[in-house]
Design a protein that fits this description.
mainly alpha
Length: 218
């Protein structure tokens, strides 16, 4: 609980870092309708994909400062030297980051109703797809961030490593919303995304912790 409170305070103090990806998300979904025009049918057809791409980009851009500050200010070194549970620290850090990034993005995705003229039903399904798929996306981005932690300008490599692994999630999530929109059952796809996210949350913190420890030793 103490670790949770500490990480929560750290996240609140770095407001600029987690506000920037949210602003990026809002800019993309706001400018997109202006770029493609005001035809309702076209906006409805592209709306789900546009919101999901904006969510993915904002998530990838937001992981730059996920572990780097902890390495620079000695927090990571203290945890390793004190033989603390590094996977637990990683899990807590990622859960809090998800709340301040994808959690808020999921709520903001409801703006697709006025911007892309989606129905409320489609918007709720879109939000559900972000909630179920984004934990897996975050874990993959966090793995890429930990792998490039010790590299100079490693943040540039994070999207190049993470995006190819995240594309299947994007395809399945938008496909699930399209199935619901056409009256078909997209629930199995949402269940598949949820299962992938649960497995990622259970496994990835251990992988990331091991990678962080190797980065610190180097």
């Amino acid at each position: 609980m103490q670790l949770w409170r500490r990480e929560w305070q750290v996240k609140q103090q770095g407001a600029v870092q987690w506000l920037y990806p949210l602003v990026l998300f809002l800019v993309i979904i706001t400018l997109f309708p202006l770029a493609v025009g005001s035809e309702p049918a076209l906006l409805q057809r592209l709306g789900v994909s546009a919101v999901w791409i904006a969510a993915l980009l904002s998530l990838v851009m937001g992981v730059d400062g996920l572990f780097k500050p902890a390495l620079d200010n000695g927090t990571l070194a203290q945890l390793v030297v004190a033989n603390a549970s590094l996977p637990l620290w990683v899990l807590i850090r990622l859960v809090i980051h998800w709340i301040f990034s994808s959690g808020i993005v999921a709520a903001l995705s409801l703006l697709a109703v006025p911007l892309f003229q989606l129905s409320w039903f489609e918007a709720w399904i879109l939000m559900a797809s972000i909630v179920t798929g984004s934990p897996m996306l975050l874990m993959l981005s966090a793995v890429a961030s930990s792998l490039t932690l010790s590299l100079k300008n490693g943040a540039v490599l994070v999207p190049l490593i993470a995006l190819p692994m995240q594309l299947p999630v994007l395809i399945f999530a938008t496909g699930a919303v399209d199935l619901f929109a056409t009256g078909l059952n997209g629930l199995p796809i949402l269940a598949l995304l949820l299962a992938g996210s649960i497995i990622s949350v259970l496994v990835m913190p251990w992988v990331i912790a091991m990678t962080l420890k190797m980065s610190w030793l180097n």
